[in-house]
Amino acid sequence: MDSNTLITGGLVYLAASSIAIWLAMTLWTYRDMRARSRDSFAQLLVTGMVAVLTVPGLLIYIFTRPRETLSEAYERSLEEEALLQEIEEKPSCPGCSQRVYDHWQACPHCHTRLKKPCIKCATLLELSWSICPECTTQQPGQADISYEASAYTEPVDTTPRISVRQKRQTTRQERAAEGLEFIDEEAY
Length: 188
Description:
The protein has helices at residues 3-36, 40-53, 55-64, 70-89, 149-152, 164-178; strands at 115-117, 124-126. It is mostly helical. It folds into 2 domains: 3-72, no CATH class; 90-156, no CATH class. Strands 1-2 form a two-stranded antiparallel ribbon. Helix 1 packs antiparallel against helix 2 and helix 2 runs antiparallel to helix 3. It is rod-shaped.
């Protein structure tokens, strides 16, 4: 083999490799831009820039291309929407910030009053509502309710609880003190 054949073979190899690299860069640019934008004019413009300027055009495209692909943007928007729905669907107690449900009248954690039943139809109403939207019944005077947690809480009943058995014993003692005869129900 003579040197002209080797040089010609090397030049043909370099030319074929350069054309293959040029086509690969152009095709990659088109596919990448198509994944990042729906604008067909922008896709063709960027592909033409890389086809004409080759490596410098590819570097310009890499530096200026959109940050995320269309599928990444779609997934991000789905995640954001799911988070927003999760936030909106979970109402919380104004007293303790625990999760509560729409059908609850009071928070089971801190006993904060959340809603009130209508005096006529028993539909659950917001505490600030003065009229029932279902039956249009005027509700008794809670027009000036503040939204502090203390305004929502029920007053605590501090009277001691007396069981039925204790009431019976108290009644027996009262009757015995009066001189009345008492017959024990449990004896029968």
